[in-house]
Amino acid sequence: GNGSTVSDFILMGFEQSSPSTQALLFALFLALYSLAMAMNGLIIFITGRDPRLNSPMYFFLGHLSCLDVCFITTTIPQMLIHLVVKNHTVSFTSCLTQMYLVFGVGVAECILLAFMAYDRYVAICHPLSYTQIMGRQVCVRLVGTAWSFGLINGILLDYMTFHGPFCRDNHIENFFCEAPIVITLSCGDPQFSLMVIFADAIVVLLSPVVLIVISYARILASILSRASSSGRGKTFSTCASHLTVVIFFYTSAMFSYMNPRSTHGPDKDKPFSLLYTIITPMCNPIIYSFRNKEMKGAMVRALGSTSLAQAESV
Predict the structure, then answer these.
(1) Where is the G-protein coupled receptors family 1 profile domain (predicted)?
(2) Can you list the domains of the chain with their CATH numbers?
């Protein structure tokens, strides 16, 4: 009733699916999660250990993989558990914590992708000054800024989501605690909180997009004015991996947080939620690995040395 207070939430997720469908989804998502963890873990390992990858681009890539590991671990293991058990209840505190981590890590990844675009701009347009502009301390500060802003911004968004009492339905029509859905369950008028989150999304999502667009516009102008056709192809190949990741991540995030809730529904929200919570973190290392010769070489060396060490131990 209106006088009661919600102390926990029920994640509907894929509860309406048949047992056979849930079993299939469990196997599929477990495979995707395992692949994402393995690929991102490998990138974190080789970017930290391989001296041939001692450059700002791979420093940023290692932190991007770290963010992806945090992101998928925040949501996917819980979803896998709910696919095999009947109790889909999560406590108020667990929901708040999960949402904070999703916000914090997601915002940090938005900012980091913008810094990675700036890194490509400096490398291509100012190659002679690249090492001075993108020194180690500068890279550490940029990564620290991304992490810090994401975690601080998460506090604001968490507060706007949970500051009011909850005395309505406690069923969340998704597989994790997503802010726009949770806000609509609050007793008060959700419009102000939704407007704040919408405004925050404009700043957090569109500001990095502006930096990315400016960086690639200058890259395009630079290579068209002075590079040969072969040089253009190599430069475009270098930038294509980052652009692909940006398109995947920003498309799904903008749909989830910058569209009116009236245009949403469980059938529309879940695919986009899956896209940015598991598909994008899984695709990021694959995109960078298959389009980058240095990454492929480093992976072969890492896997080869591991196999050799295991053979010697036997």
Answers:
(1) 39-288
(2) 10-313 (1.20.1070.10)
